[in-house]
Amino acid sequence: RSFAQSLLGYLGFIFWGTAVAQAFGGVLVILMFKNYRYLFQESYLSLPGWLALATALILLPTGLLAVSISVKCSRNKQGTLMYLLLLLLCLEMSSAALARSYCIRTASQLESAMGYLVHQHNWTCSQDPGSSPVDVMQRKLQCCGVHNYTDWLKAPPSSWYHPACVPESCCKEKHSHCGGDLGHVEQLSEEGCLKKLEDQLCFAMMYMFWCCTLLCILELLAGVSNGILMRHQPFHDFSIL
């Protein structure tokens, strides 16, 4: 009983720390889909992020109850803690399942969405920096094309004109005078945008997945500890409940 009481107190403090980690993961996922909303048509893809924020808010009173019960047991607090742990378990299992499935699903959709944007992008060999979604993405990720700069050669502005350059947004930041000239390939970003965005997306989703998995284990431990304490103080008058 004393071990369960001590463990519950420690878990209460851990819940406060994991609330911050969950909030960080939720904001990361929400901002990811907000910044690249032109690539993801479905608005519900940010759902794991909102579930993580809801989990973080519920973890705060859950941690407070766990610490309070470890100091002084109360039947009302123990019952409330059990309900909160059950609610958190449902939220985190849902969030983990969604994050895992979205990581696989969205990665397969990115290539076609990026290819369409590259094909539809109007550009010329000029010093115009451009402000289209493709240009913004290439500057932010420091990438060029879907797989590499040769993707721009497959999608020229017109069928008869084959430019000797790529959009200026493909240039590396350190080359301020780069105009996207193919004669100076070393001034262009080597990596394509697909791999970089896939890596960012999977990092955010897998971060959410493992955070939720770890929290599920901690909450099961808290539930078992609370159950041991409740067993030593049974609800004689309400045993039917």
UniProtKB/TrEMBL annotation:
Question: How does this chain sit within the bilayer?
Answer: Multi-pass membrane protein
Q: Give the transmembrane ranges.
A: 7-33, 45-69, 81-99, 203-224
Q: Which UniProt keywords apply?
A: Membrane, Transmembrane, Transmembrane helix
Q: Does the keyword Transmembrane helix apply?
A: yes
Predominant subcellular localization, coarse grouping: membrane
Give me the Gene Ontology terms describing cellular component: membrane
Q: InterPro entries per the record?
A: Tetraspanin/Peripherin (IPR018499), Tetraspanin_EC2_sf (IPR008952)
Localization, per the record, is: Membrane
Q: Does the keyword Transmembrane apply?
A: yes
The name under which this protein is listed is TSN3 protein
Source organism of the structure: Ptilorrhoa leucosticta
